Amino acid sequence: MSQTSFIRKIVHYDIIQRILKQYQCPASCNSHCCKNGKVHLFEEEKESLLRLRPDKKRHIAIEKDVSYLYTIDFPCVFLDDSHRCEVYVERPLVCGLYPFKVSESRNDIGLQPCPIGYSIIKDFSKWVVGSLAKMDDVPLDKKRQIKESWELKLDLYSNELTNFFTNSSISEISIPLNDLELFSIYLDEKLGCSST
Fold this sequence. Notes:
The protein is mainly α. Helices cover about 45% and strands about 10% of the residues. The chain contains eight helices and six strands.
């Protein structure tokens, strides 16, 4: 199994794609992640991109700290003049996950506070709190405590979103991997194909 396939499997890539289909980047974002983020590639991804665009070879280098990873110069050299991805179908795993981000834990996945990340976490918190409200075996005090905790997280995350385009370092929220599939089903039922 390739490195990319292995990572896709452990982070539930297909489920993340179902979640991301419910959201759309606002025009105001203007490809911020592609212009300012560090794109990591595995060897097989590098080779795939260079088959499509061999002229970009000088813009891809070995990651200094991790010998099996490569990085693309940023702003990403695969953006066209209208800030759209020229290699979208073959885009690297990290691009297909964004605003989700692989964490060091195998139990959760990070979520960056970009406009879509904020919309996702708002919907996720509604789902958590709504699901909890339906559980008869959870004490009311515990339900209230979890609801207040999510309200606080959303306030903090809102501040991160406000500074997202200007801060060089941002905080992310983690979502348990085990919750992704149920959350995607919730989105399919509640939102259909529309964005929040």
